[in-house]
Design a protein that fits this description.
Elements: H1 2-23, H2 27-56, H3 63-77, H4 80-83, H5 106-130, H6 135-153
Helix pairs in contact: 2-3, 2-6, 3-5, 5-6
Bound molecules: heme C.
Length: 156
């Protein structure tokens, strides 16, 4: 019993010091972390979108893979608004292509993320209803949603 209590105390202690370390991140380090997190979402969006693109270009159709891709795009797209909650526009030295105009137009930015989620959900419905015949339409609905946001809010 004593040993369990001691283990608990040690665990709690290390959790608390972990929290302290987290709180001690400088504003720059925190911003760099935010940038890395949101770029991770976009990398996964790209990875998730790839199989659909390949199928639309005439690759072998795999219905399960196509539907899974659409589901992943919907989930990842839904993570974009929160990932940009932290305004990093005033932080220098970041390696980011995010336009500083995002935070003055956050509602518009969030709407473009919502458009991607809607398109991914519609693509899923199309794939469920039409199977292979729907794959080009599904991809055609998603790609422009990526581009619409990049045109406005991603730097070259
Ligand atoms: C609501 C806006 C928005 C949408 C929708 C969006 N993107 Fe982006 N994307 C961005 C912004 C902003 C960046 C720059 C992020 C940064 O560097 O901090 C970015 C960066 C990226 C990157 C580079 C990531 C890196 O490693 O630096 C890739 C790849 C990418 N997007 C792919 C996609 C794909 C694929 C889609 C659609 C399935 C998509 N994006 C939809 C805004 C968007």
């Amino acid at each position: 019993m004593k040993r369990i209590a001691l283990t608990g105390a040690v665990l709690l202690g290390s959790l608390m010091s972990f929290n302290l370390v987290a709180a001690e991140l400088s504003a720059e380090e925190q911003a760099a972390q935010n940038v890395a997190n949101r770029q991770a979402i976009f990398k996964l969006l790209s990875v998730s979108n790839a199989p659909l693109g390949a199928m639309a270009r005439g690759g072998a159709y795999d219905g399960d893979a196509a539907k899974l891709a659409a589901q992943r795009l919907a989930i990842l797209g839904g993570m974009i608004p929160a990932a940009f909650e932290a305004d990093t526009s005033g932080v220098t030295g970041l390696t980011t292509r995010a336009s500083t105009t995002i935070w003055g137009n956050k509602a518009d930015f969030d709407k473009l993320a919502g458009d991607l989620v809607t398109a991914a959900n519609e693509a899923l419905a199309t794939l469920e209803a039409q199977g292979e015949a729907g794959v080009r339409g599904a991809v055609g609905a998603i790609g422009p949603k990526c581009g619409a946001c990049h045109d406005r809010y991603r730097l070259d």
